[in-house]
Write a structure and sequence with these properties.
Blueprint lengths: L2 H18 L15 E5 L2 E5 L5 E7 L4 H17 L4 E7 L4 H10 L6 E3 L4 H6 L6 E5 L5 E6 L3 H15 L4
Parallel strand pairs: 3-4, 4-5
Antiparallel strand pairs: 1-2, 1-5, 3-6, 6-7
């Protein structure tokens, strides 16, 4: 099968799952997040980051809301990395060149991990793009958020501040 056709099938499946639900259940608060050693830009990238509050975001180059979430994640990384927040975005494109094209237009100031096999979203129970998990330093899921738009930004930042113990 052609890679574009396979990618189209993947998009259709994720859209269908996010609209009508699925047998796969997303991780919920209190559950332990799977630790996955994925390939990163400059070597292995652990997801989540051990011993840190970690914002794990699943994204793909074809995801429209992901284009809006990256500038926000850059801002969160700049504001809160020194206070203990790690931001890691897990790319799910089958072709690395698709992710590289996205990142050339919208650079990330935080680590990027790559999972073309789709193991990570399966283990996390991701149903649509983007989906984010806030994982505590103890490895347990604290919050789950599907989608992204500008209206989400303030609520998501307050969530991060609350778990960091920072004043809003």
């Amino acid at each position: 099968m052609r890679p574009q056709f396979i990618q189209s099938l993947r998009v259709a499946a994720l859209c269908l799952l996010s609209c009508v639900g699925s047998a796969a259940i997303a991780l919920e608060p209190g559950e332990v997040a799977p630790v996955l050693p994925l390939a990163g830009v400059s070597g292995p990238q652990p997801v989540p980051v051990a011993g840190k509050l970690t914002y794990v975001d699943f994204w793909a180059s074809w995801c429209g809301p992901c284009r809006k979430s990256f500038p926000w994640m850059n801002e969160m990384h700049r504001k809160y990395a020194s206070k203990g927040l790690a931001v890691v975005a897990v790319n799910l494109d089958q072709e690395r060149s698709d992710a590289d094209g996205f990142l050339a237009k919208i650079p990330a100031e935080f680590p990027i991990a790559f999972d073309p096999s789709g193991e990570a979203p399966t283990r996390y129970g991701v149903k649509g793009m983007p989906t984010s998990f806030l994982v505590g330093a103890d490895g347990k899921v604290l919050e789950v958020h599907a989608g992204f738009n500008e209206k989400d930004a303030a609520t998501l930042e307050e969530m991060i501040q609350r778990h960091l113990g920072a004043a809003p």
